[in-house]
């Protein structure tokens, strides 16, 4: 699981870093309508090349990952 660096800014989460980590899940923490326009579209696309399971606090609200014997469970404030 990757917690995207610096709210998914354009200069964070380089292609090389993502190739090494190859995450199954990614979480981007950013506020809706923030003045920095985070997350950056290109940064999200770089992450999407490694996983389509991207959770964003601006879209999903609070995100909770719970690990147990049964595996990983993911709950978000707005569903799933």
Can you give a write-up of this model?
InterPro entries: Competence_DNA_uptake, RibonucZ/Hydroxyglut_hydro. It comes from human gut metagenome. The chain has three helices and five strands. It is of the alpha/beta class and 80 residues long. The protein has one domain. The model has no long low-confidence stretch (mean pLDDT 95).
Beta-strand content bin: 25-35%
Number of domains: 1
Distance between the termini: 17 Å
Question: Reading side by side through the largest sheet, how are the strands ordered?
Answer: 1-2-3
Shape: flat
Mean pLDDT: 95
The level of helicity is 10-25%
The biggest sheet amounts to:
3 strands, parallel
Number of helices: 3
**Using only CA atoms, what is the Rg?**
13 Å
Structural class: alpha/beta
Key structural traits:
25% strand, 3 helices, alpha/beta, two-stranded antiparallel ribbon, 80 residues, flat, 5 strands
State the gist of this model.
The chain has 80 residues and is an alpha/beta fold. It has helices at residues 15-21, 41-48, 57-60, and strands spanning 2-3, 26-28, 54-56, 63-68, 71-76.
